[in-house]
Amino acid sequence: MNPTPDQSVVWLSIAREAFAHSSTASEAALALERLGRQAGLGGAFALGLQELVAYASAASDRAQDAIDAELEAVAASRRIVCPLLEAKLQARLDALDAQLRGKCSCSECGKVMQSEGRPKRSWDSSVGQLSLKRRQTECGQCKRHEFPAQRAIGLGDGDCNPRGLRPCSWTSLYFASLVQFGSRRGWKKPSP
Ligand SMILES: [Zn+2]
To answer: Which of 87, 124, 169, 189 could tie 160 with a disulfide, CB 3.0–4.6 Å?
Structure first.
């Protein structure tokens, strides 16, 4: 997915602003932290870039083997994309809440549900904790609560986003095993 020209301008201006007056990685990290306080994708991009700067400038541990280095890189990659995933999901929830306002019917009795505001809550995901606001509605007759936008994007009521957690965990395990077999036990991919 290519960024639109407008998005590219935002990303470049954030990077330029962070690095223009910074002569060290720690100064750039501080500038990105400040830029990360802005709402939306721009702030999330700054926070992700701050994590990338931290990972790129951390000194290599000479005692660390390739597997631990890979696991550290995977953890860093999750921290880099987590704020962006959160901002993207929040944008979808915002749009759906605006679109569905006043139009949600109770799935039990069919009456129009009333808004009870947009409380925030957290979910665990394969890239870290996601904190998201979404509209809560109540049926005056059944006293049931629903979260229409949350349901529309497939976020469950539990603590984690299970469809996201499962494949990522298995993929990580697979690659960790592959590196382990390849580097430590002389394993080679068989010829076709
Ligand atoms: Zn009802």
So the answer is: 124
